[in-house]
Specification:
Blueprint: H1 8-25, H2 27-34, H3 41-50, H4 58-65, H5 70-76, H6 86-105, H7 107-110, H8 113-126, H9 135-141, H10 149-175, H11 179-188, H12 195-202, H13 206-218, H14 230-246, H15 249-275
Helix pairs in contact: 1-10, 1-15, 2-6, 4-5, 8-10, 8-15, 9-10, 10-14, 11-13
Organism: Streptomyces chengmaiensis
Protein name: SalK
InterPro entries: HTH_67
Length: about 290
């Protein structure tokens, strides 16, 4: 088997992950859960993403999500499960994924052989994902694979995203970045969410952000004006390379040609979705 090019798995993940994420930014998920009595946007996200684990409490979700404030999570969990069951949330999420993908991609793409091919390749990659020490992946891996190709693709992208994400948390611990330091340093790369969005959705306060910046400066990772130092850039690179190693098995199983093809297909669907307004303009950057 031809060895994978450097960072091929990361590039493939970066092509697939945005389409998985569209559902959490979609009004369709909010509408589905509002009909079930869940109207707070943070509760919608927390319930939508954690439902695969069952009616878990705040401690489990804080551990699995990593960069959310525990205080925010305790405001919504386990209370949300008194209004709606995890099974109802999962069904609502899949309905929302269907509506969202049809709107963003268009019916021609939904019915295309390329989307069916992407679903088959992504599902094949998931065959080498592993459950141990990966709570969000393991919970989603127990869910049935939808029959429709576009939902099967979304499901497979979800599995690959959570598999990499669970590994990424282990990598964050290994380099000594706490939840908010991880967010601050990611934003400092210019590729992460902007601070206003993080504070609004992750439950942190401006003082928390400032304190995390100061801790990173004390470690020589951040400059006075909020940019990564050379050491900070090196640490983020080490972090991503460690994550790549922990997430290599699915892509090695798919093989170089399969990964290249899945990346190509995934990028096409991602560009279409982003062009259709899948994400808010204010989501990314340092502003």
């Amino acid at each position: 088997m031809t060895p994978l090019p450097a960072r091929a798995g990361r590039r493939c993940h970066n092509a697939l992950n945005p389409l998985h994420s569209t559902v959490y930014f979609s009004p369709d998920l909010a509408e589905e859960l509002a009909s079930l009595g869940v109207t707070d946007r943070n509760a919608v996200y927390l319930a939508g993403r954690s439902a695969a684990m069952g009616a878990v409490g705040p401690g489990t979700v804080t551990a699995a999500f990593y960069n959310f404030s525990h205080e925010l999570i305790t405001r919504h969990l386990p209370a949300v499960w008194t209004r709606v069951s995890p099974e109802e949330v999962l069904a609502a999420r899949l309905r929302a994924a269907d509506v969202t993908l049809r709107r963003l991609l268009g019916e021609d793409a939904i019915d295309s052989p390329e989307l069916a091919e992407a679903a088959e390749l992504a599902l094949r990659a998931t065959e080498r994902c592993t459950r141990h020490a990966r709570p969000l992946y393991a919970a989603h891996a127990d869910l049935p694979v939808p029959k429709e190709p576009h939902l099967a693709y979304w499901h497979a992208a979800t599995l690959l995203r959570e598999h990499r994400g669970d590994g990424h948390l282990a990598a964050l611990l290994s380099v000594g970045l706490d939840p908010l330091e991880a967010l601050v340093s990611h934003t400092a790369t210019g590729k992460g969410m902007n601070p206003r969005w993080i504070l609004a959705t992750r439950g942190w306060q401006p003082a928390d952000w400032d304190a995390a910046e100061e801790r990173l400066r004390e470690r020589g990772l951040l400059t006075a004006d909020g940019r990564l130092t050379e050491a900070g850039v090196a640490l983020r690179a080490e972090l991503e390379e460690h994550t790549d190693r922990l997430d290599s098995a699915p892509y090695e199983h798919l093989g170089a040609d399969g990964v290249e093809r899945l990346t190509e297909l995934g990028r096409g669907f991602m560009v279409t979705a982003v062009s259709a307004g899948a994400f808010p303009e204010e989501l990314l950057g340092k502003g």
